[in-house]
Known about the structure:
With 152 residues, the chain is an alpha/beta fold. Helix content is 45%, strand content 17%.
Amino acid sequence: MAQTAQRLIIDVSAEGVRLPVSLARVRQACELALRGERVKDALVSIAFVTDRQMAALNRAHLGHAGTTDVISFGFAPTAEGSGLVGDIYISPAQARKNAIAHGERIRDELLRLVVHGTLHITGLEHPTDEHRYDSPMWKRQERVMRRLAEAR
Length: 152
């Protein structure tokens, strides 16, 4: 039986928005999260979008009014042995608001949302109430953030 090549393909776009972090650093954050979950084959698209675009995605796909910080979609494999496929949408404007509210740097909050969305596409979930910060997913997210900080 032939072995397929293992690879991570991470595409990042930021048309129409300004980012205080490099696209290479965004890819690195996603890759660290994927490798932490032992994902070897993946095709991930990360799009930084305006609040208007995010509000449209939120309404169309989740039925929620208004914008949000991150939305992710993980798709079921199309064939046995095929890799993970996922799309992540992030609002830099909402990341800025989150960062200010929590006393974080904006670039760190953007990277946290990349990691958060990546963990969601791997199938991880968290509570939506105040217990989210104690959840296994949140702890994994913060572990990846520490590794990312060490990799500067």
